[in-house]
Design goal:
Blueprint lengths: L3 E5 L20 H17 L3 E5 L15 E3 L4 E3 L11 H8 L5 E3 L11 E4 L2 E6 L5 H12 L4 E6 L10 E3 L4 E4 L1 H4 L8 E4 L11 E3 L2 E5 L3 H8 L4 E5 L2 H4 L10 E3 L2
Parallel strand pairs: 1-2, 4-5, 7-8, 10-11, 13-14
Antiparallel strand pairs: 1-15, 3-4, 6-7, 9-10, 12-13
This protein binds citrulline.
The site of citrulline has 19 residues, from loops.
Pfam families: DDAH_eukar (PF19420)
Keywords: Hydrolase, Transferase
Protein name: Amidinotransferase
């Protein structure tokens, strides 16, 4: 069970962050802040203590805190973010996580974004993407392997991160986009496949006994309603415009 979440307030120039989603329109800072507040309130409503970091103007993507660390009960792995414009965001997050967990680090030439890392029970799936390379996965496997976790590297052919397309929604069930549904490495799991046009909602966030899912994806909502978990919908329009999703906006962990 997660007891804590770390988030960062989006900075005023968050729209200068990296994005491939310009067709969704211009991001609105006021609306982004309100949607971020609703996200924090949802986490608090689920009983989590939320640690909020201040905005960081030099890094317009820095509120996507998930990418700069992977936190397990035993260790917090500080990543080496794969996009040069984002590398440096980890500097201010590491000391905060260091209050709760021993730290380990992915070092160059290894690169990794936390958005590529999915934990299901004691098994990590790590996407090999434009942000995460094989050396990053090798270092990560060495760190978490020492604590009894296994690691499977999975090529990400489409989309930004592995968790843009695959997420754990409880038990042995994964919510996946059609692009990932045929992967051999996911055999053995029950796959819920997002309907056409609802791929964005594959980034649904499991927090203890609840699922947080983006508003506006009725097909995905119908799929996850059958899982027996509480479902919370949040409007993610401004985050989606910057290629981000629900998982990216926090680091969840147990203390
Ligand atoms: C980026 O391109 O790095 C950000 N604009 C979005 C990061 C989203 N993070 C995530 O999916 N974990």
């Amino acid at each position: 069970m997660f007891s804590h979440a770390l988030v960062r307030v989006p900075c005023e120039n968050f729209a200068s962050g990296l994005t491939t989603s310009s067709r969704l329109g211009a991001p609105d800072h006021g609306l982004m802040l309100r949607q971020h507040d609703a996200y924090v309130e949802a986490l608090r409503g689920l009983g989590l203590t939320v640690i909020t970091l201040p905005p960081e103007d030099a890094f317009p993507d820095a509120h996507f805190v998930e990418d700069v660390a992977v936190v397990t009960p035993e260790v917090a792995v500080i990543t080496n973010p794969g996009a040069p414009a984002r590398n440096g965001e980890q500097t201010s997050v590491a000391p905060v996580l260091g209050r709760y967990k021993p730290l380990a680090r992915i070092e160059s030439p290894g690169f990794m974004d936390g958005g590529d890392v999915l934990l299901v029970d004691r098994r990590f799936f790590v996407g090999l993407s434009e942000r995460t390379n094989a050396e990053g996965v090798r270092q990560f496997a060495e760190i978490v392997g020492a604590h009894g976790y296994t690691v499977d590297a999975v090529p990400v052919e489409k989309g930004l991160h592995f968790k843009s397309g695959v997420n754990h929604v409880g038990g042995k069930t994964l919510l996946v986009t059609p692009d990932f549904a045929g992967l051999d490495v996911l055999a053995g799991y029950d796959l819920l496949v997002t309907p056409q046009g609802e791929e964005y909602a594959a980034n649904t966030l499991l927090v203890n006994d609840a699922l947080i899912t983006p508003t506006g994806f009725p097909g995905v909502r119908a799929l996850i309603d059958g899982l027996g978990l509480r479902v919370i919908e949040l409007d993610m329009s401004e985050t989606q415009k910057m290629d981000g999703g629900l998982t990216c906006l926090s680091l969840r962990f147990a203390v």
